[in-house]
Amino acid sequence: MVMRWRRLFLISSAAALGLLFSLTVAAQESKTLAPESLPKVLAEGAKVLEKDIAAGKAEAEALQQQIKQAEGSLQNLGAQIATLKASQGAGELQLKQAQEALETFTRREAAVAAKIKQAEDMREQFSKQLSTRTNAFAGLKQEVERLKAAKHPLWKSPKFRSDWERYEQLAKQYKTGATQTLERFDELLRITGEERQSLAGVLAELTDYVETGKKEELLKRRTLGFLWETVKQTWKSLLEMPGRLAQDLSEPRLGPKVAATLRTKWAPLLGLLAVFFLLAWSAVHLRRSLLPKLALWESEVTGLGTKIIFEAGEIIVAHLFALSFVAWLALTEWVLGWWQTAVARILLLGLFVWVGLRLGLRLIQAVFAGQDQKGILPLDDRTARFYCRHFKLLLTYILVLGLFGLGLLERLGLEPDSYQILGLAFGVGLLVWVLYLLRSRHFDDLRTELPGPEWLKRRGFFLTVRVLLLAVLAAIILASLLGFQNLSAYIAQAASLFGLLLVLFWVTWQGVRGALEHALEREKGRVSKKIRQKEVVLRNYFLAIMKVVVAFLVAGALLIILNIWGVDLGFLSWLSLILNWGTNLGPFHLTLLGLGSAALALYLGRWSSRFLRILLEVRFYPRRDWDQSIRYTIANTLHYFIQAVAILMALSLLGISFSDLAIVAGGLGVGIGFGLQNIVNNFFSGLILLFERPIKVGDMLVIDGQWGQVKEIRVRSTIFQTFDRSVLIIPNSDLISSKIVNWTHYGPGINRLTLKVGVSYGSDVRRVTMILDEVCRANPRVVSEPPPQIFFEAYGDSSLNFNIWVFLATPSDRIPATHELNTAIFEAFQEAGIEVPFPQRDLHIKNWPDLSALAPSAGKAEA
């Protein structure tokens, strides 16, 4: 009922808000409303306000009811806390009761937090609506006051005045009611906040009490007689368990609950059925598509660990439908609210164990089938049969007796002491079984064939494991004989879980490593076959990914191991304090965690940019018929975008908000205005080169008379390599503002080469034209269409000048074509007897001087 009124209230509020908002927008756009529209606006607005006032009253009543419920809940919580404290003070609070109270209050605290979040969101939304509508009321009132001041005829109408007074009165009522609703929201938030604070306090006390109680229980010493009585009570309880199970399964209220759920929650049921069919369809299609690929990949690998992983993948894919059904059943129980019922949990646990047993047994059979049956491990038939049988029994023991059996007994309400005895028996049985398998005469054959490093296959490693197992068993037996039954049960369960966790950790590690090696191996990897030129990159990424996987696995395993052995994780709070320690730098608070996170964000940005660019190069670009310049533009744009996002994330992790960035940007503007103009100019010029693309990577340019090719377009400069193999580093702004000859702007297509040649005045012009045309057509670099063109250009001072136009396939042919054509023309002219003149001057002397006057006299000569 409350939710229905709330929906009506929000819908009506939205309608009125839209009407008044449109009125305000129209007033802002036209400055004044058309007076003719005011009566209609007032009439429609009054109707909406009447509905909103009625809906607001219903909302206020619903809030008042919630306040009363919250007050009652707070009083009930106070009474429960007082009872707990009284029991604790009298020493009557048992550990099991404290644990149950801790679970109950934890769920209650989560529910209260959700209520507070919902109330805060609704209050914020309601407050925004009230503010917007108040502004709309003010705008409408301003328009009416403007009519009144102008003595408009509409204002003199008694009906309009009556409508305005009624509208104004309704607006005041709405505002008064909305204000009261906000006050009730505040009251509800105050009461629920107090309840949350009380829950936080009692949760902290109960947590300390439970932790202290667990430690005291571990060291509590009991007699052997008590142990015997516990064993007898456990046997008696086990005999009663079938009756309890039958009673839970035949609960008379179970049928009506299911029927009521089918009647009231038919919409979620339809959605769940759609999800089921989708999961089933996906499972069938994935099975058809993945099974052949996994079989093919398994046949290609040689490593035993990788073979085991692919075999496990085939088994999982073959059972996708069963796994999907278990996942769907868990989702159904959670959506329909059946998760807390014992029957639903038992059913789900049983299905999970059944599916896990099917998968595990098939994998064990495939691994330990023996050489004759083409098993994965090359073992003789006798050893293979021994370990296949024992591992199957051990898996059944763990899943059926351990996971399902102990879990079923716990849900059926088995006494804590009896459950502890059974847990002790299960742990001891598991340790003894593993110790037997390690001491078997068949183990030496198995040890040498295990996948993994050499140190794992050494006899000394497993000898150390056997010694540790014997020490754990001795500690369990000794603790039981001394009367510390709780401690012995704790050691047995923790040691069993610890061993299973290590095995799971090792299998996961071998699986991830095998899969990555299969994909990234240099010689046989599926990815490396496609990108041979990236061997160094593949090796680096393989090592990087393996380091990340190892870090996550080790960290997760360490936390779980510490939790298994009951180590207090309070040191994590100290670690948090150390990481959050820092200093203030102006308005910013720099911490070790912030600096480390910022550095990690920058590193991941750089790593992701490089990885994505390589992925584009080897997987995306080969499927597209794009030239090198487009690829370069996309790669650089992606690099700049990822780096910008990484920098923003790093600044955010350092505690720098976007408003602070605006201040920094202003400071940078001043710096740019003084000393960074050239750098910023070159940066934006580089962006223009990348996006407008007047010059692209690979273009052939002529810069200052030097021919060359563009190799890179960087942030600040462009790398230009001449044909002499020298490199010019040119600022991007120079390329934007200067005139550059680009021979490949529209692609490396046909271009024209112009040659000039001169012949002597006595030559046959038609014969010269024919010879030049034949020479040009005979050159393989000259295209036939368009054909070469020969022009008699002019009468020179000492020659008849010809222009030769030839068309080449690519600009890169210009220099060699020039050499070849000039050589061929010279040779053809020599064979035809055509002279290629050179500039010369003839000197004509009109008056020759008397040479005797210039000679020395004879007398002087004799002297």
Automatic annotation (TrEMBL):
Positions in coiled-coil regions: 46-87
Intracellular or extracellular location(s): Cell membrane
This protein's GO CC annotations: plasma membrane
Stretches that traverse the bilayer: 266-287, 308-331, 337-357, 391-409, 421-439, 460-484, 490-509, 541-565, 585-605, 638-658, 664-691
Pfam families: MS_channel_2nd, MS_channel_3rd
Matches recorded under InterPro entries: LSM_dom_sf, MS_channel_C, MscS-like_channel, MscS_beta-dom_sf, MscS_channel_2nd, MscS_channel_C_sf, MscS_channel_TM-2
Domain Mechanosensitive ion channel MscS: 678-745
GO MF annotation, one: mechanosensitive monoatomic ion channel activity
Ranges for domain Mechanosensitive ion channel MscS C-terminal: 754-835
Membrane topology, from the record: Multi-pass membrane protein
Record's protein name: Mechanosensitive ion channel
Upper taxonomic lineage: Bacteria, Pseudomonadati, Thermodesulfobacteriota, Desulfobaccia, Desulfobaccales
Species this chain originates from: Desulfobacca acetoxidans
Keywords: Cell membrane, Coiled coil, Membrane, Signal, Transmembrane, Transmembrane helix
Position of the signal peptide: 1-27
Family, as annotated: Belongs to the MscS (TC 1.A.23) family.
